[in-house]
Design goal:
2 copies of one chain form a homodimer.
Chain A lengths: L1 H7 L7 E5 L3 H13 L4 E5 L12 H5 L14 H8 L2 E3 L2 E7 L4 E6 L4 E6 L2 E4 L3 E3 L12 E2 L4 H14 L3 E5 L3 H12 L3 E6 L10 H14 L2 E4 L3 E7 L2 E7 L3 E3 L2 E4 L3 E3 L2 H5 L23 E3 L6 E3 L4 E3 L4 H15 L13 E5 L2 E7 L2 H6 L4 E9 L10 E9 L5 E8 L7 H10 L3 H6 L14 H10 L3
Parallel strand pairs in A: 1-2, 1-7, 2-3, 7-18, 9-16, 10-11, 10-16, 11-12
Antiparallel strand pairs in A: 4-5, 5-6, 8-17, 13-14, 14-15, 19-20, 21-22, 22-25, 23-24, 24-25
Helix pairs in contact in A: 2-9
């Protein structure tokens, strides 16, 4: 409506987009809108001092794989302002969305001044927040999360300056694994506490067991199936982690207990939430409110394999959604079809990847499925550097439609998950997978690529 | 007919399969038939002393990357005989197919004895032959092809014993590139002569130029756009290669001028040939003769992108076709849909891969197409070991349907061709490629995988 009215007096008032959150989704959207609509005013409020940084790179900065934190920043606020004409205001926190008044209440964190900013379009790109348990001793110093660039700088400084001997990582997901690797590289003794019986519960337990084994071989002491209960400290600094089974001495603690969508602001404004309390949007990334959009880690997405709403916090998805929200805010028409649930990481020499649905999800959905797991090599057996790799493939019983895949192995193993992700997007069955014309030469693969070896085993069970 | 008759007296006469050629296609088929039909008699005639070896591994044996040639053999004739009950007779050459009499004439190369062997089913899996130009001096010693395991052993021995200083490789395709790499690794000065203006004509000239550049950087002297005219020798051993532009001194010559299907035996028997004189088959791998089948490098296949008959000599295809021919010979029903034209190789640090159709093929087919080429990195820019990679993507103008892709880059670049190959199998368009949920973490990829960066550029041109 508003747009229409303004179109009648086009030269008078500039349209204004306000973006809450200046990382992947927010800045992708802002950049897209700038390209499509050079005349639109774009204001981005970012709580931290940084924009467009690689949250996924933080553990590598911790491990000194990357030494200059500036390298993690793809574009600074100054670049956005000067080169792109995007008014990127860091250290500005949005406190409230007034959707009826089409304005947001903002606090400038540098001087605590508050003001209202009006918008024609609002994009919520507030990202995710690390899950922080409210446990005794949880406010001790020396306990770190790893989510924003700031948190990464603080943790790295603590390791640089205090040179901890023993660290405890709580949580065996992506952040937990990568933090454990980083701390090992820094010469720290690492213990890892995980509530589940295996690390990496985004994979099935049998595949998780391979990762647990690899971590033990790298020197991480695992305490699996143990529940975090408290932290102990001396002089305000953490010195132990207490589980339901033991007390683990610790000079430093890293929490990697997962994330939740940062959707409180939206919820308080009466914007509908969906899966795991992420902001619900349509495929064009619009919320239930006409001129309010949401993208990235704060928003719900769609799982193309389960055909259900889905929540995932990943930079790739945030970038894609940001670009699509930007296109639509600029007046275009683009839709995000959804994801298949692809993720990849490594811990020391072991690569890990997954896509699609795992056994527990299939059971919950009541889908009758079959699985096959094979061990092969990343290269021809006789070629130097041929590393072990295990592939697990899941397919629907009867139809043979591929439903998911998981890979654990040495260098070169995990990126093969992209073939499986593409298979899922295409809705292929196991038979079609066997016929795929994948590349082979001795330095790259056995004659049958391991993902196809898995398919050849699985086809017999369908 | 014959089968029917025998079925009426099932215990009396064993059905017999004769296979001509004991490498990928032939032995895959024989193994498959053995599993499905334990009672069938299986005789394989192989001209060389070896079965089931990796022809693709020969250049790595030459380069001493692999030191034990036995490692290139996946199953010896003895294993086939003793463990699988397959009568694998090496050093046996089939000289004639008598299709009306359902028998083949065979020569035992060890004693030159000839005999006839009858069959119920015949599989022709005679592979490919290297193209050998009939040029002055071509019969000199010191000129080598690289196709069979024997030829690999002979060439390696020549390099080991004669320690050549200067070698000339003729041909800039897969074998030429890999042979050049191997000879460099052996400390030999390498020149490469190629008729075309770039190496690797299975890629477009602009991508081939990147490979030429990389080879020069590795120390190979390239003579592009030059035609081989003759060889010079002294005392019977080659000492120079003559092109239309110069005379190149050479202590050793490797020919990598491509291969042609070894289809003469079939042609002489009146079996129809197709693309590039490869044996024509239906998708079940049957020739025009009811009980004669053909698979692997001697047979024609189908290109799923061009929807035209196609010839390619690759171990992957041979293995797949062999397995399918085996299934059908055993009484099953399986069909080979075809290939999309995927291939991969490396020369020193540079990886090369291609799939689908290249520009010249698209022009010949009269398809209106667009292309985009991008430069990116194999990993996040800030992550150590992020190597350069160039991706070229081709799509149909208008529909945006992806038609082909080419990759040249450092470690980790080329295997991404599998994503593009799967895209081609699925018939996806560029837009769908952009939405693919591919894996990202800093050690594995930029946030947008390079193949998607290419798609994002290409989509604007569609």
């Amino acid at each position: 409506m508003k747009e229409r009215e303004r179109e009648e007096v086009p030269v008078m008032i500039k349209e204004r987009l306000v973006v809450i959150g200046g990382d992947a989704a927010g800045m992708s959207a802002a950049s897209k809108v700038r390209r499509e609509r050079p005349e639109m005013e774009i204001v981005v409020f970012e709580r931290s001092p940084h924009t467009s940084y690689s949250a996924c790179g933080l553990t590598y900065y911790l491990g000194k794989v990357v030494d200059d934190p500036d390298k993690l920043v793809s574009r600074s606020p100054e670049v956005f302002r000067e080169k792109y004409g995007i008014d990127a205001r860091t250290c500005h926190e949005v406190l409230e969305i007034d959707k009826d008044g089409s304005r947001v209440r903002v606090r400038d964190l540098r001087d605590d001044r508050e003001f209202w900013e009006s918008y024609d379009h609002l994009l919520i790109a507030t990202g995710a927040l690390p899950v922080c348990p409210d446990l005794p001793g949880g406010d001790s110093a020396g306990i770190y999360g790893l989510s924003t660039l700031e948190s990464g700088l603080v943790l790295r400084r603590a390791v640089d300056e205090r040179k901890p001997k023993r660290a405890v990582v709580v949580g065996g997901g992506y952040i937990g694994l990568e933090a454990a690797e980083a701390l090992l590289m820094r010469g720290v003794e690492v213990s890892l506490v995980q509530r589940d019986p295996q690390v990496m519960t985004s994979l099935d337990p049998d595949m998780g067991a391979l990762i647990s084994e690899a971590m033990r071989e790298e020197g991480v002491t695992l305490y699996l199936g143990e529940k975090l209960e408290a932290f102990e400290s001396s002089e305000g600094w953490v010195d132990a982690v207490v589980t339901d089974r033991r007390t683990l001495p610790a000079d430093l603690v890293v929490l990697g207990m997962g994330v939740r969508p940062n959707s409180d602001l939206a919820a308080e404004a009466g914007i509908e939430l969906g899966a795991r309390k992420a902001i619900r949007t349509d495929r064009r990334l619009r919320t239930i409110v006409d001129n309010i959009w949401a993208a990235g880690d704060c928003a719900e997405t769609w799982n193309l394999v389960s055909q259900r709403p889905f929540y995932v916090a990943l930079g790739t998805v945030a970038n894609k959604e940001g670009a699509i929200a930007g296109t639509n805010i600029a007046g275009g028409n683009d839709a995000f079809p959804g994801v298949v649930g692809t993720a990849i990481t490594k811990v020391c020499e072991t690569e890990v990847a997954r896509t699609g649905l795992k056994e527990r999800e299939l059971k919950e959905l009541g889908i009758d499925y079959v699985t096959a797991t094979i061990r092969s090599r990343t290269r021809a057996g006789y070629y130097p550097g041929a590393a072990r790799m295990t592939v697990k493939l899941l397919a629907e019983k009867g139809s043979g439609k591929v439903l998911g895949g998981q890979i654990v192995g040495g260098a070169g193993a995990a990126k093969r998950i992209d073939t499986l992700a593409t298979v899922l997007h295409a809705g292929m069955d196991v038979e079609q997978m066997i016929h795929l014309d994948l590349s082979y030469a001795p330095p790259f693969s056995p004659v049958w690529d391991p993902v196809q070896i898995a398919a050849r085993k699985l086809v017999k069970k369908v």
